[in-house]
Amino acid sequence: MSTKSHKTREKIISSTLSLLNSSQLSKINMEDIAINTGISRQALYKYFPSRLDLLVDLLKSIDKDHTLLEKLMVDQSLSIKEKLNSFIDYWGYNNEATYKVSSEIKLLRRTDQKVKLILEERNIFFRQQCEQIIQILNDGGSLKSNFTYREASDILCNLLSEDTWAYFNENCLWSLSKYLEKIHVIIENLLIGTGTKSAWSIRGY
Predict the structure, then answer these.
(1) Is 196 a residue whose pLDDT tops 60?
(2) Which of 2, 19, 62, 162 has the fewest CB within 10 Å, making it most exposed?
């Protein structure tokens, strides 16, 4: 792809994001995006043959950099508590950024195999990362003994899911900062044993 084509593609993504900030995604069509980008519909379809193709690229562009999360997991300079807190923040900010787009894509899951695979890949990655942080808690002796590894992973996945964020944001009118504040407390109270909190400040896990 030429530099000019790459810049145009980036401009389309940026334009779509700006429209998202002022309208519901379901009300934005390809013509709106073309006008906002300053190109013709024909040019837009050259880069994105369908609305789905554009949505998929948009989701990938706003999904936070997963390499940052992977580095966090193996960072020996952080304590278990710092890793868990950073993990919660990572997914909170990611959910706020991606929910509108991913929820629109989910509507096409039953009719499009490509969509189904994309969503499955995202869910698998999310699940694996939740299991990894639970394993770190368990290995460090901070996980409550009354939860199995599977149960703790299930709890964490549900609390940090896009759907949970959307519920509190849309139905309870929670801001992202309030959601993160409450979720930090809920996760710590649910998963961290009261007698093990001294251990989870130790660095090196």
Answers:
(1) no
(2) 2
- Spatial distance between the Cα atoms of 192 and 133, rounded to a whole number of angstroms: 12
Q: Cα–Cα distance between 180 and 177 in angstroms, integer?
A: 5
Q: pTM for the complete prediction?
A: 0.84
Q: Which residues contact 128 (CB under 8 A, 6 or more apart)?
A: none
**Which one-letter amino acid corresponds to residue 109?**
R
Helices (H), the chain: 3-20, 30-37, 41-47, 51-62, 66-74, 80-106, 113-139, 149-159, 162-171, 176-191
Residue 30: name the closest of 9, 10, 52, 14 by CA.
Answer: 52
Q: What is the distance between the alpha carbons of residues 102 and 79, in angstroms, rounded to a whole number?
A: 32
Q: Rounded to whole angstroms, how far apart are CA atoms 179 and 131?
A: 22
Contact 12, 46 (CB under 8 A): no
How many other CB atoms are found less than 10 A from the CB of residue 13?
A: 20
Rounded to whole angstroms, the Cα distance separating 157 from 99 reads 15
Residue percentage of the chain with pLDDT more than 90 = 52
